[in-house]
Design a protein that fits this description.
The complex is a heterodimer. Chain A is built from 15 helices and 52 strands. By secondary structure, chain A is mostly beta strands. In chain A, strand 19 and strand 20 form a beta hairpin. In chain B, about 40% of the residues lie in helices and about 10% in strands. In chain B, the strands form 5 sheets. Chain B has a two-stranded antiparallel sheet. A two-stranded antiparallel sheet of chain B has the order 2-3. In chain B, strands 4-8 form a two-stranded antiparallel sheet. Chain B is mainly alpha-helical. Classes of the chains: A mainly beta, B mainly alpha.
């Protein structure tokens, strides 16, 4: 260490500040070190004195001008003395002056331009020409096990730079990916802070095996992007077609998302600080009855009770409550005292802050990155929130000319408080709609208002009380560590070996108070503590061979193999019967009831062993060929089918390089590419191929005993599911790159579909995983980038991406029989049927209500005027399960995103819209808030229910609960979920060079932005981008049963670089 | 240095290309294959597994407030529930092959059968068991298999006959076997075999006992004698023979409780009158019927949910002899609690007072056989077997009547006595999952309004719906028909 310092010192490359730090570090060495170091110490002083004089004598002033490639002066270019933190920036005229010592090199850098390193030497006036960085054409793209120039790609790879991701002021990198890449659909269904999103690339390929893409973060396969700090991300690449994804063969069927995190750059030391503060509010409202309206509906409903249930009425089942008997709630005239807006009570203004600081840089041989991030985000639903700390250290060192080693450690700690759990039950979100409007949050004496205070209701608690007495703390610690060794064997041949691991530990602490009726009062409090640990390692080894033969041929070959193992252990304990709410989950034994079913533990693991190769061949830089093959073995499959081979081939023709195109000035890039190949899917859970005996608890009079029996049917023939895909793409650049267009057409067919095929229950089993089924997806993706105006200080860019996917089930199980994958909501919600897309909505056809003059016809169905009228599809005089059909689609017909960016001088302004067309959303909330009038509060829509005077209504006549009523999945619940969203609006300002120079800042930017500023949609719920059934399987989308309302967010932040 | 490194690297690289033996083998430590178990406790666990599905008859199912028991009660027309239980479909006879509860019974019963078949196949492999243990274990397993099949044939008619675990995908589809074949090949041989075991007459842990085997066999033969098999006189004789063995133990191993309300005292579970029950306790599994049978949101209990999911029809309750103690307040029914009128009569048979007043954890068992039931089986079977009621038969009916504060009967004609026995079954065993099966096997339905027995086909229930042939068997669940191409649907569905 000391020697190194001295060496640096004597070479005169360090500035005074650093050298005195070195002195201090020498002086503060421990006494033992003193003795040993004394010689060095003397030399240090000698050297430094000698140096000081030399130093002073060799200082010189340098000035100059920085020009762009058109010779125009460039303001704001940062200039650093190589290997130091000293620097300056150019002024408005592109000029700079600074003092350096002889022999110094200056590094000129500017975003979007290549760094220029200039040795000062004897010069005192410099003219530096900056060159635009690799235009989009020459952008380097990360693919598996290597990088490639975008121009050399034969496959379809979408790419986003990290700085685009942080534009959204969104701590979740997955959410920030939404709308960035054509064909990559991010579904932000959950709005509670810290919640994850779903990603679907080019449609849904599978039914029972996973449909999530594979994440590869810095080479670590199967990492979780939701946990990565967006500020640490350098770039995200999505491998969409088979030619590019096949290198991850066995796991590439749903597409691959490659994330590269930031590393230090050699000889460019930087300190970066980014932050933002944001404030969010509920973006929309769903109208419910107010206190007086509720009482009106209540009375009408009881008036109608006799009509709908005469015998029950005769028995005295329908006795309405008299407000006068409830003086807490009504005045002496029977008028409600309170009129609570539960939406406003539960949702409020939420603040978030986000800070990131990064130190990046390096010497000639070693580079480093140290970054820290902190996020603290409150949810708009009271008491919800998310806090996260992230840290990253990366080091890369070329320790020998032929040997580079490096590694990184990335750590995350997050705490998330969830108060909107228990979807489907009477949870916070649901009680916002269902709590009675004439209840107070608390009575003057401190008692909580509850629906139970009014007779004949379901009696649930008010949402404020639930939010304050029930929560889950989700605590997650994650560490990604990787180490690599890059060995340059010859000029053309490189060997790389990596060892990476993931350590995840999650602990969820849940408590629900003793007093919450219909949630945990019957159990006298419920606490659940659960832990899950995941340990993963992978080892990958590959050789890269780059060879140019003559001027015409370039060959790149890669050959490698890998091992990985992923294992988990989990344990959870639930206890009930708490003596007091004081203890919560922290003292789980303060609950005296621990049912045997409340103790669960599980362990599991899977392993993969793979061999892979890729060959790229380029002829004249015009004709490109890529051949990829991967041979994968997975522990999850049957003994004879563990291994499978996934090949792909891609070709491309860069027509614009041909001689005949040289004369066409308008077109400066034209590439036509095609690829075909196969990728696999193994995401089926462990141990599916064998017939096993499992244990379970059986209750006897003396308590539980262990039972053992066969618990899995097992399918020893289980094999890989595979997806064959062809892709055809055209990339075009016009007018010197001002207009760029990329279009892809693809067709995918998944075969040997891993289907949980139903078994006859007579076997004792419901289903077994089998390779029977087939699904196809075809689609088109268009990406357009245009510089509309570029005039003086003003530019206007438009970026557009548009994609459309069509999905169809081709084969399903042995008999092609329909499958209802659930979830079940008063009937099946969706169906899998051959010839129809995955995500087809299933239900009845509501044509309205029976009118008075149709009384006779209604009576045939045992109904009355005022009842819901459904179409009798099979005309058998009965409305039952056979009267359902496909009534909607969960996935959209097309999706588009358009961003317009305007820059003027130091200002930039961008506006981004997202358009989703042709998707349906099931508004299942209508069951509980439109069809059950006296049981809870209702939507304001019931004011328009059927009456003899208002017979043209979709909503049945209001009636006291307990009378027969019909409520079922039908066309009235299915709504058009198409929407246009103003996704993001941003105004930024880069501080001008003179100010930056004064404070020695390289870059400073202030921005203001707004997210989800408005949505245009016919949908009547909070937001059409919704799904509250995320736990009910991977296929459902757009199933809305009381979501966490979507926020509208305004942010302001600053980005600084020193 | 570099050269050596190259050699080392190349060596490691090529070594890595050779796959490591066993790296991809799955080795689950939470599951096991059959061959890995050998202890006597493991053998016992195989037997224990057969009890896991007994609660199929009282399992939450269908919509809010639904329970599998309700299916059998809704069908009789003597009960209804709230709209979300879809009781109206069964009251109005508009149910179909996708209606609630029907698939729950089917899948749960066959899962129970699978577990029995696995145990029957595996147990002989356990050398740690002595011959007597093995015989007794097999008797338990066979009895439960018969029990599960007995429900299947009564509910669905002809059903697939699965007598050993299905192992391969090629064998998963089985056609339906005639009802009589299921009785002759499985139910009756299983029970006859179990009858010869050394199991005790009463086993307090709630397991298969000789008392249960005899009661089940008596019920099986009585049903076999009736519809649809109509096995006739001989079956009545066999039935009476088994029920008499149980009735003969009245006063020793078994006895009637003095009070009906003794049956809702948790301390009496598995004792005295109770022969075989579904087990519940406070911690691990509570009786779901307790809140299901409470009036909807009446606010009388510690339960957050008072469902009103299974409610007696007033026409049925009114058809009791007003002097009958069973219809008096808080015997079998309740209409008032703690001063609050409930707006009708509700079932009091699972009114677990501690649960209702304090902790919402009902621990009362659900009874599958109790002595009163077997006594009435004896009275009915011996009446038919002997061409008239014998003294023990009359005594049995009178013991039941006496507890209900009804005057004793004297000797009657065969038919009149049979109707009296049926009456007692209606009043004594109402809402215990018995009446529907009685209706099916006798093809007679007591009309609550006229108080006479109608023929099953043509009987008009209080919801103005008329029983037809199709009501004699539940439809095979649609999903099962879709999956198993060998199946045919019952007529009318």
């Amino acid at each position: 260490m000391k020697k190194m310092l001295l060496r640096l010192f004597s070479k005169g490359r360090k500035l005074l500040g650093i050298s005195s730090m070195a002195l201090i570090s020498v002086l503060t060495l421990s006494p033992q070190d003193w003795a040993v170091a004394s010689n060095d110490r003397n030399r240090t002083f000698e050297v430094s004195e000698e140096l000081m004089s030399t130093f002073n004598s060799l200082r010189k002033d340098v000035s100059g001008t920085v020009l762009d490639q058109n010779g125009v002066p460039m303001p704001g270019v940062s200039i650093l003395v190589q290997g130091s933190t000293t620097g300056t920036v150019t002024d408005l005229d592109g000029k700079f002056t600074m003092t350096v010592q002889a022999g110094a090199s200056l590094v000129f850098s500017f975003i979007g331009y290549e760094n220029q390193i200039v040795l000062v030497g004897d010069q005192s006036v410099l003219t530096v020409n900056m060159r635009e960085d690799a235009t989009a054409l020459d952008e380097v793209v990360v693919i598996g096990y290597g990088t490639v120039k975008k121009s050399d790609l034969t496959g379809s790879v979408g790419s986003v730079r990290g700085d685009k991701l942080i534009d959204r002021s969104q701590p979740n990198a997955v959410k920030s990916l939404q709308g960035r890449i054509a064909g990559v659909e991010v579904l932000n269904n959950q709005n509670s802070p810290g919640a994850s999103s779903r990603i679907r690339i080019r449609g849904v390929n599978s039914i029972n095996s996973g449909v999530n893409p594979l994440f590869v973060i810095d080479g670590i396969i199967g990492a979780d992007l939701n946990m990565i700090n967006p500020s640490d991300i350098e770039s995200v690449e999505v491998l969409k077609d088979a030619s590019s994804a096949a290198i991850y063969g066995a796991r590439g069927a749903n597409g691959v998302i490659m994330v590269t995190t930031k590393r230090g750059q050699k000889n460019q030391n930087q300190v970066l600080y980014d932050n933002f503060v944001s404030v969010s509010n509920r973006a929309s409202t769903v109208p419910r009855l107010n206190a007086q309206e509720f009482m009106d509906v209540y009375n009408t409903a009881y008036d109608n009770a006799e009509k709908y249930d005469p015998s029950g009425f005769a028995q005295g089942r329908y006795v309405r409550a008299n407000p006068v008997n409830y003086p807490d709630l009504f005045d002496s005239n029977g008028r409600p005292i309170y009129d609570t807006d539960w939406e406003d009570e539960v949702y409020g203004t939420a603040w978030a802050q986000n800070h990131n600081i990064a130190f990046r840089g390096g010497s000639n041989t070693t580079s480093y990155n140290v970054s820290l991030g902190y996020t603290n985000e409150d949810g708009i639903m009271m008491n919800s929130g998310f806090e996260r700390f992230t840290g990253k250290i990366a080091l890369d060192s070329e320790i020998k000319p032929w040997l580079t080693v490096g590694g990184s450690i990335l750590g995350t700690r997050s705490d998330r408080r969830v108060v909107d759990d228990a979807n489907g039950a009477l949870n916070v979100a649901r009680m916002v709609a269902e709590a009675l409007p004439f209840l107070p949050v608390r009575y003057p004496d401190g008692r909580w208002g509850a629906n139970a205070d009014w007779p004949g209701t379901e009696g649930a608690e008010n949402p404020v009380r639930i939010a304050q007495n029930r929560y889950t703390d989700v605590n997650l610690n994650q560490m990604y560590a990787d180490f690599y060794l890059n060995f340059k064997i010859t000029k053309d041949l490189e060997f790389k070996t990596t060892f990476s691991s993931i350590f995840d530990s999650q602990k969820n602490n849940f408590y629900s108070s003793r007093t919450l009726r219909l949630l945990s009062a019957d159990q006298r409090g419920i606490a659940t503590v659960s832990t899950n640990q995941r340990i993963y390692w992978q080892n990958e080894n590959f050789i890269n061979w780059n060879k140019s033969i003559g001027d015409r041929h370039r060959i790149n070959g890669m050959l490698g193999f890998s091992w990985l193992k992923d294992s988990f252990e989990n344990l959870s304990v639930r206890s009930e019967g708490f003596i007091d709410d004081f203890f919560e989950w922290r003292n789980i034994r303060a609950g005296n009831i621990i049912p045997i079913g409340g103790i669960n533990g599980n362990v599991g693991a899977f392993a993969l062993n793979s061999y892979f190769t890729r060959w790229n061949y380029s002829l004249d830089n015009k004709y490109l060929l890529t051949v990829t093959g991967r041979y994968d073995g997975s522990s999850r499959f049957g003994g004879n089918n563990k291994f499978a081979f996934f090949p792909s081939v891609g070709i491309a023709w860069r027509a614009s390089e041909e001689g005949f195109m040289q004369g066409v000035d308008a077109i400066n890039n034209l590439k036509i590419r095609a690829s075909a190949g196969s990728t696999g899917n193994q995401e089926i859970g462990n141990f599916n191929s064998l017939q096993f005996l499992g244990t379970f608890n059986v209750l006897k009079a003396a308590g539980n005993e262990i039972g053992v029996s066969q618990t899995s049917f097992g399918n020893p023939d289980l094999k890989w599911e595979s997806t064959d895909q062809v892709d055809f793409g055209v990339e075009m650049g016009f007018f010197n790159g001002r207009l760029m267009l990329e279009t892809d057409l693809y067709y995918k067919r998944t075969k040997n579909l891993l289907l949980n095929a139903p078994l006859p229950f007579s076997t004792g089993f419901g289903s077994v995983l089998q390779n029977i089924g087939s699904v196809e997806n075809m689609g088109i993706e268009v990406t357009l980038n245009s510089v509309n105006i570029e005039k003086g200080d003003f530019t206007w860019n438009t970026d557009l991406n548009w994609s459309s996917n069509r999905n169809k089930i081709l084969q399903l199980g042995a008999n092609d029989g329909d499958i209802f994958p659930g979830p079940w909501f008063l009937g099946q919600t969706n169906i899998l049927r051959v010839g129809e897309p995955i995500g087809s909505i299933w239900g009845r056809v509501r044509t309205g209500t029976w009118n008075l003059d149709e009384a006779g016809e209604a009576a045939e169905y045992r109904l009355r005027p005022g009842d819901i009228r459904w179409e009798d599809l099979d005309n058998n005089g009965l409305i039952n399960a056979n009267d359902s059909k496909i009534i909607g689609r969960m996935y959209p017909k097309w999706v588009g995103n358009i961003t317009n960016t305007f820059t003027y001088k130091n200002f930039d302004f961008s506006v981004e819209f997202r358009v989703v067309y042709g998707q349906d959303v099931i508004n299942a909330t209508k069951h509980s808030v439109e069809d059950r009038q006296t049981l809870a509060n209702s939507y304001a829509t019931v004011l328009d229910a059927w009456t003899p005077q208002n017979q043209n209504s979709m909503i049945a006549e209001v009636r006291a609960w307990g009378t027969p009523y019909l409520t079922n999945m039908d066309t009235h619940w299915v709504e058009d979920g198409s929407f246009v969203r103003l996704q993001n609006l941003m105004l930024g300002y880069n501080l001008p060079a003179p100010i930056l120079m004064r404070y020695k800042i390289t870059r400073a930017r202030i921005f203001f932005s707004g997210q989800n500023l408005f949505v245009l949609s016919p949908y009547t719920g909070y937001d059409p981008e919704v799904n509250t059934f995320e736990g009910a399987g991977q296929l459902p989308q757009g199933l809305d049963f009381f979501p966490f309302a979507r926020p509208r967010t305004f942010s302001a932040g600053i980005n600084l670089a020193f | 240095m570099k050269k050596q490194l190259i050699y080392i690297v190349l060596f490691l690289f090529s070594a890595g290309l050779i796959s490591c033996e066993g790296f991809l083998d799955e080795n689950p430590a939470t599951l096991t294959t059959q061959a890995e178990l050998s202890s006597p406790q493991a053998a016992r666990a195989l037997v224990t597994s057969i009890y896991a599905n007994v609660n199929v008859v009282v399992t939450g199912s269908g919509g809010w407030g639904g329970n599998t028991l309700s299916l059998l009660e809704f069908m009789t027309g003597k009960a209804d529930g709230v709209a979300q239980t879809e009781g109206f479909r069964f009251n109005q006879l508009t149910y179909d092959s996708q209606s609630f509860y029907i698939d729950t019974y089917w899948s749960q019963l066959y899962q129970g059968i699978l577990r029995c078949n696995v145990a029957l196949e595996q147990l002989p492999r356990y050398s740690a068991l002595n011959q007597q243990e093995l015989t007794d274990y097999l008797a338990e397993v066979r009895t439960m298999r018969a029990f599960y099949y007995f429900y299947l044939v009564r509910m669905y008619g002809d059903v697939p006959k699965i007598s050993e675990p299905v192992k391969t995908l090629a064998e998963v589809n089985s056609p339906r076997s005639p009802v009589k074949e299921i009785y002759d090949d499985i139910i009756i041989p299983d029970l006859l075999s179990a009858e010869s075991s050394n199991l005790a007459w009463r086993r307090p842990n709630g397991e298969v006992s000789k008392g249960f085997i005899k009661s089940l066999l008596a019920d099986v033969y009585l049903t076999y004698a009736g519809n649809p098999v109509n096995a006739g006189q001989a079956a009545y004789v066999e039935s009476a023979k088994r029920s008499k063995e149980v009735v003969d133990l009245k006063g020793s191993t078994f006895d009637l409780f003095n009070e009906y309300t003794d049956m809702i005292i948790p301390a009496n579970k598995n004792s005295r009158e109770f022969i075989f029950q579904v087990q519940f306790d406070k911690i691990n599994r509570n009786n779901p019927l307790t809140p299901v049978c409470l009036p909807t949101f009446a606010g009388i209990s510690a339960y957050s949910n008072e469902f009103g999911g299974l409610v007696p029809r007033f026409e049925f309750v009114n058809s009791f002899d007003p002097a009958d103690k069973r219809v008096q307040e808080k015997q079998f029914f309740i209409s008032e609690y703690k001063g609050k009128q409930l707006g009708g009569k509700y079932i009091y048979k699972w009114f677990d007072k501690t649960a209702i007043d304090q902790d919402a954890r009902a621990e009362l068992n659900f009874t599958i056989y109790r002595l009163a039931d077997v006594m009435l089986m004896y009275a009915e079977a011996s009446n038919r077997a002997g061409g008239g009621p014998n003294a023990l038969a009359i005594q049995s009916v009178n013991d039941i009547r006496e507890r209900a504060d009804l005057a004793p009967i004297i000797s009657m004609s065969v038919d009149a006595f049979e109707e009296e026995v049926w009456n007692q079954r209606y009043f004594e065993l109402c809402f215990e999952g018995k009446l529907w099966f009685d209706m099916l096997r006798t093809r007679k339905v007591r009309n609550d309004i006229t108080k006479v027995y109608d023929n099953f086909v043509g009987h008009r229930n209080v919801f103005n719906s008329t029983f037809a042939e199709r009501q004699l068997r539940f439809p095979i669940p649609l999903r099962e028909i879709d999956v198993n191409a060998e199946l045919t649907q019952n007529a009318g569905f």
